[in-house]
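Reopening this ticket.

The earlier resolution said the output was attached, but the attachment link was broken on my side. Pasting everything inline this time so it's all in one place.
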Amino acid sequence: MPEKTGAGNRRAYHHGDLRHAVLTAALDVIASEGPDAVSLRDLARRAGVSHAAPAHHFGDRTGLLTSIATDGFEMLAGALAEADGLRDAGVRYVRFATAHPAHFQVMFSPQLLRAQDLELVTAKALATQRLQVALSEIPEAGRGSDEGLARMAAWSLAHGFATLLLGHNLDDALAGRAPEDAFAELAGMLFHS
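Inline output:
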């Protein structure tokens, strides 16, 4: 809450965690309106701070979206670290996407991000490495003759399923079935795991 200070009755705002408040507001906007609707000025208004305050933490809109993607890749890496095999990694990938849809949307929109940001590159590399560990466990019967294409197919399956799920394109097909269960069965069918 703004408070008066002694010198000339200036008003100073003391915010406990401005970075977190702006990120939370941005995630809300992305979830409801998409990343194109994100504006630092609007986020400042929502957080109750001056329009310049978010720029102090993120620089600009691209910096903010890069921070969101970095956080997302770090959370995804954490989720994949606990995976027990390929199928479980895919289920965790889908679970992450449904639990963090705004992060997921921004993470895979490179045109919105600073691709060379060191924190982003590091977080993305860790998530990719953990995903590669799971993908290396594709059963031989499900690999075919090209292991690289099999890994691409497995990631495409999880990512495509998650994307279709978030867009409500699978609502009728799932017919009340738990998405994670449907994905696990689908992965087993396609990769003989």
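Reporter confirms the inline version is readable. The CA atoms of residues 80 and 89 lie 6 Å apart. The domain at 61-193 is CATH 1.10.357.10 (Tetracycline Repressor; domain 2).
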